[in-house]
Amino acid sequence: MNTPKGSAGTDGQLPNNLEAFWMPFTANRQFKAKPRLLTSAAGMYYTSHDGRSILDGTAGLWCCNAGHAQPAIVSAVQQQVATLDFAPTFQMGHPLAFELASRLTTLLPEGFDHVFYANSGSEAVDSALKIALAWHRVRGEGTRTRFIGRERGYHGVGFGGISVGGIVNNRKFFGPLMPGVDHLPHTHDLARNTYSRGQPEHGANLADELERIVALHDASTIAAVIVEPVAGSTGVLIPPKGYLERLRAICDKHGILLIFDEVITGFGRLGSAFGAQHFGVTPDLMTVAKGITSGVVPMGAVFAQKKIYDAFMNGPENAIELFHGYTYSGHPLACAAALATLDVYRDQDLFARAAELAPVWEEAMHSLKGVRHVIDIRNIGLIGAVELEPVPGKPTDRAFRAFLEAYEKGLLIRTTGDIIALSPPLIIEEHEIGRIVDTLRDVLTHLD
Ligand code: PXG
Asked: For 346-355, how does the pLDDT look when each residue is reduced to its tens digit (9 = 90+)?
């Protein structure tokens, strides 16, 4: 007889068996001993399984930029599922996938004319790396196979992404990874840049490390450099003034593609549509996900400059130009969600709203200077980070306890290492910014 595994029913709002779900990026045993479940969401707030209202300080996982349950997005998805639930995009198509791609290009920097769909940031990154390799090859530069990522970079969890990424725990368990990858140094410099507001002053010269790496491998072997304009997952590392410009110049000099991973910086997080516009630096390829549908339906994408797409459009017309794609590339529900999300961003002017709130956010974040345990605060757009002094010998412990305490007090934050990262929906009100900061002050003041 099978051992009973608990019924599928719920005890109140809590499932009576938490075992089967192997949770991602989670301390499973710790969580299952004291679970935290979210059961509904609207606007800036989640409701927890024990009926409490939780202020969303993280836009879910940096994705719900339009806030939760925006009526226009909800009804677009509801209508779409009843109209066309699925349609293939391999040698077939459906109207929304084309409509969305055209619409997205109107938000993009000059020169970006093409959209390749994926279903997540990780898939978008893998797709961009493959497009970069194939682009060099179709142009007769097939020796360009190396990638340059950056220490502390996060580019999702595919083998490509963890290879170019630079987060040790994401790499060390998974063998030799992809060959032919080198890494730029990260740009975190607490000694020189503490309590920076916006872009830090020091560190543009770290981009020159790219010249050293190019000299080591020779430019003819390097396909692309991939960086996040603002590194998010690693704990919010903001590019020093002049750094991205210098990376761009060195890539141009050596015929290397520059890929911006805009999975968190895309769709208004910095107060512009994309980080590329915010920083005034245009990459050759961009990867996005998350905010493209405000997190409502999974979707990722690669945005490609015309020169990239055009290079593939050679050879016989019946030849498939790029042997790559996903069953769910351009899924109708994701397209419907994305189109409605873009409407919401436009109609509620949410990117401009983020830009207007950014100075209020900055003041609020920096008001935590001097609070117990705080060793740095940094901010840009509607992103903030509070770095804590780690407990000696117990890295991550203090920040994680802060996370638990904040949750008890009705605030959802993210922590990575000993850094608290904040990225609220762009619909946040000033009083809610105040509440985030007041709650954090209270939590940190009472934390060991
Ligand atoms: N690139 C970047 C820059 C990301 O931030 C991904 C790729 C991967 O996206 P998917 O959709 O495959 O997860 C990400 C994801 C956090 C956090 O708390 C950040 C991400 C995911 C989960 C948590 O910082 N970023």
From this structure: 999 999 999 9
